[in-house]
Amino acid sequence: xxxxxxxxxxxxGFSWSVSENELGYRDGNVINIGWHCxxxxxxxxxxxxxxxxxxxxxxxxKRFTYNDIRLASNTIGAFLRxxxxxxxxxxCLFMDKIPELYLGFLGILKIGAIAQPLFSAFGDxxxxxxxxxxxxxxxxxQKKHALKVRKILDRLPHIKHLIIVDHDGASPLKDRExxxxxxxxxxxxxxxxxxxxxxSPSVLHYTSGTTGMPKGVQHVHYSLVSQVxxxxxxxxxxxxxxxWCTADPGWVTGTSYxxxxxxxxxVTQCVMDAGFSAEAWYRFxxxxxxxxxxxxxxxxxxxMMAGDKIVGKFDLSSLRHLASVGEPLNSEAVVWxxxxxxxxxxxxxxxxxxGCIVISNYPGMEVRPGSMGKPFxxxxxxxxxxxxxxxxxxxxxxxxxxxRFDWPSRMRTYWNNExxxxxxxxxxxxxxxxxxxxxxxxxxxxxxxxxxIINTAGHLVSPFEVESALLEHPAVAESAVVSxxxxxxxxxxxxxxNLKPGFTASKDLDLEIMNFxxxxxxxxxxxxxxxFVDSLPKTRSGKIMRRILHAREWGEEIGDxxxxxxx
Length: 567
Ligand code: WT7
What we know:
The chain folds into two domains: 7-435, ANL, N-terminal domain (Rossmann fold); 454-554, ANL, C-terminal domain (GMP Synthetase, Chain A, domain 3, 2-Layer Sandwich), CATH 3.30.300. 30% of the residues lie in helices and 23% in strands. The strands form six sheets. Strands 2-1-11-10-12-13-14-15-16 form a nine-stranded mixed β-sheet, with helices on both faces. Strands 17, 18, 19, 21, 22 and 23 form a six-stranded antiparallel β-sheet that branches. A five-stranded parallel β-sheet has the order 4-3-5-6-7, sandwiched between helices. Helix 5 (66-82) packs across helix 6 and helix 9 (224-233) crosses helix 10. 5'-O-[(S)-butoxy(hydroxy)phosphoryl]adenosine is lined by residues 207, 252-253, 325-329, 347-352, 372, 432-434, 446, 449, 455, 460.
């Protein structure tokens, strides 16, 4: 029997108090994610239970009990407080998936500061726009990534401290730098937890927009209430699970379901900080006896491509439940997983802005391969008619995925950008930016994004950000960035470039520009293909028409361009 039991029963007369009660939360009380994930679990008698099993490159391993993560997060919290970091200040975590990332996250929350995780593959420009927008006070990082921060430190006056967790003393610390070693620091037995309440800010994740720079999605401590209940009813997490969330905490899946929910439920989770290979992943499941596995479509497609034979080499019988998020999960992947693992991947849909799963397939409910499932109990979703901004009165129509924005882990605003936040609403509905339809039984079927954002391997890339980076290359006069289809990543970035006079297209220039973007932004944002063109399609007012280029890449009808031509 699954945790949720019957979806229909749970949806009837639903109230979030189910979860508040389990968390021992009463309206108006202190609620602190850092404390809930560590001290509370220890108080429940699980101090010696394994919380985190970490595996690095070449089989390196570290194990932490709940008491260990309580102490480590206290120690990091006390260190930050000692540096003068106050509640509400932004502390960025810029690290690989090493234990300090997970423990630092909890330590930051314990002192009431705001955790701002950034993907460690980000280049200096991606980093700069996010750190300057958030006016971040401190960055916690590793030696190898500190180089990228140093490059932009002059332009970041708000940063008071660059904290290096693996400083070996070989090279001297530079301006504003300080070393911190979790292994060498004296464990702090008691830390005064900052008395955060429901609406106190907790986490700031940056997400890409169609226009303008990335936006900081601001979450609060009360998010815990829906993160825990969704993990219980959707991921079916149980006390004796060995859980593996493959997401990096630089993205929201890696925090909501890779730190917060599993720890607040006192579950044992495993982390693998090594590159992807089908062998390595299957071996990890076998060795760690993973029971619940939360992953993403691109990874699942990679496993499919590695073939079925390799699956047979490993004992994967520990797996009880599988779920996926981040991009459309094609029905082939669901059918394949049923065949090789004996169970389907359950698709889940949500966004950085929603903070928790909002549409999903539920254990025990019939999975319709290719469908995202149904809204979580207590969450009201709909498909809006884009012309009337009202829900379609009947099923089957393709429209905008929208929600009544009222569950605990919804974002509270975009950092410093209340206007962009307000623009996400129409007629009281929160607009996701996705298009879908609902079938006659209430299942949601994803159709595509309703904007120019590129979803490559589950990561959102803004064409605007890539175009801005391209403009900084000396050879580029103008560019247009769109997605093109890709069998593995579903979509990849493609750039159309018009060169400045004096530059000629060549393979070398092609590679040079690709590398330029990779270093400035990230490997995800790097164009996989560049097409040099003499001119770009534009509206009469000079706006580049990405839509025409996009349609060409996807072999779609261009449709009516008269409206955009007159933009
Ligand atoms: C966008 C949100 C929070 C999950 C990690 C990504 C796309 C997400 C699905 C799914 C089809 C999906 C949507 C969404 N997306 N899940 N199951 N099927 N598309 O968070 O970076 O904020 O991206 O990812 O387009 O709006 P994110």
